[in-house]
Protein: serine C-palmitoyltransferase
Organism: Aegilops tauschii subsp. strangulata
Amino acid sequence: MGYVTNSAIIPILIGKGGLIVSDSLNHISIVNGARGSGATVRVFQHNNPAHLEDVLREQIAGGQPRTHRPWKKIIVIVEGIYSMEGELCNLPEIMAVCKKYKAYTYLDEAHSIGAVGKTGRGVCELLGVDPADVDIMMGTFTKSFGSCGGYIAASKEIIHHLKHACPAHIYATSMSPPAVQQVISAIKVVLGEDGSNRGAKKLAQIRENSNFFRSELQKMGFEVLGDNDSPVMPIMLYNPAKIPAFSRECLRQNVAVVTVAFPATPLLLARARICISASQSREDLIKGLEVISKVGDLIGIKYFPVEQEKVASVDKLKKLE
């Protein structure tokens, strides 16, 4: 899956004498891949191109530890949509910094490919970045494509190198034919190559669903992280004792939620992560909002004041049903 893709590919791309500059909130698969590579790892502040530039300038000026020789290779690793924050990457600014300092770029699109952009091509399309400028684009088939496995998109030379050097490709079992066909069929639907407009409808629906759900949660007084158009929206719980309370009470009312706690997040930054789907109807979303609102009142996780006139939209929608 995506975890194996990152943790197995990164050590093949770079090794001793190389420098990895990683976003501070990158996924654990990227962290483990960077640690296993033998390269020097430096971290820049989350989604902060100015700090990335400071780190690159300092590291290029100093060179390798002890010898101060020039770095053999520098790779900057970021995510398209950050899985625990729901935020879009500041990709245009980060790409400009990487070009300026001649660093390679590695983009993890696990949560963005097939979900954002006019035709579902991910954050590059959404933010107006030429995919050809990104050296390595990684993604998983387990989210938008509903299958298993992961992929790497890069130049012919990089792919040739990975095919002959990556243990995960050489020794692991191949994807089964039904799983591969599921991915191919899903891609055809997203691109409109199936002869219908289902893909375009689904992309419009997931964007509409995401923005509706996010805005309603915020109006109810929840602290919701992330950007508009992102289908990933964490609701902050903070207190570790509220994690099982929120999850179990929602489940008791027939709404299943995913809670995230330490070590996936810092100890006191627990959250519930909502991932919106294009297949969810407005009725589904309203039912979920009603339950989450009731449970939020019950366990006390509405950290912002509720403005009654703002939440009236949910009540109006209920009456219209």
